[in-house]
Design a protein that fits this description.
- The protein is an alpha+beta fold and 157 residues long.
- It is built from 4 helices and 6 strands; from the N terminus they run αααββαββββ.
- It has a 6-stranded mixed beta sheet with strand order 2-1-6-5-4-3.
- Strand 1 and strand 2 form a beta hairpin.
- The longest helix has 23 residues.
- The protein is globular.
- The termini are far apart.
- About 13% of the residues have low confidence.
Length: 157
């Protein structure tokens, strides 16, 4: 009896582990999207403009919004976002250390678009959103939203 119980317990643990692995494994499209999101950050911190710009949709409708305790900064359109990043890279051309951890991704794919959320930790925690579009078979960022300190309760001024 004891032996059967141990065998049942081992089998249950094995099956649970296999189920959890399958649940957490990303589809090919999800992995491709995640790679673009990760690479956009890596290229940005490395000041690799040529590769960084390939990760973005280059249209007037793109949007980048960052909210912090100090306020909200929003850039609309590729022309303005591109100019802002080029200026930053010119003023600060040295590659920066990349200490970024992204985790708890959720993916919602619909055709050639995707809605992706995740947590990002750079020493300050942010909840992040990307709206992705697939152009010529490659995923690109159409919208970036980052809300810093989003895990904290309001200060209640």
């Amino acid at each position: 009896m004891k032996r059967s119980l141990l065998l049942l317990l081992a089998l249950t643990s094995l099956l649970t582990g296999l189920y959890a692995q399958n649940r957490t494994k990303l589809s090919g499209e999800e992995q491709a999207i995640k790679d673009v999101i990760e690479n956009e950050s890596k290229y940005f911190w490395a000041r690799d403009y040529k590769n960084w710009k390939k990760t973005w949709v280059q249209e007037d409708y793109i949007l980048r919004t960052v909210a912090t305790r100090d306020g909200v900064h929003q850039v609309v359109g590729w022309k303005d976002w591109n100019a802002e990043v080029r200026q930053l890279f010119e003023e600060s051309p040295e590659p920066q250390e990349y200490n970024v951890r992204k985790y708890d991704y959720t993916f919602h794919l619909f055709g050639n678009c995707a809605w992706v959320t995740f947590w990002q930790d750079t020493g300050t925690l942010s909840r992040e959103l990307r709206i992705m579009e697939k152009h010529k078979g490659k995923w690109q960022i159409a919208m970036l939203e980052a809300i810093y300190n989003s895990g904290e309760a309001p200060s209640g001024d």
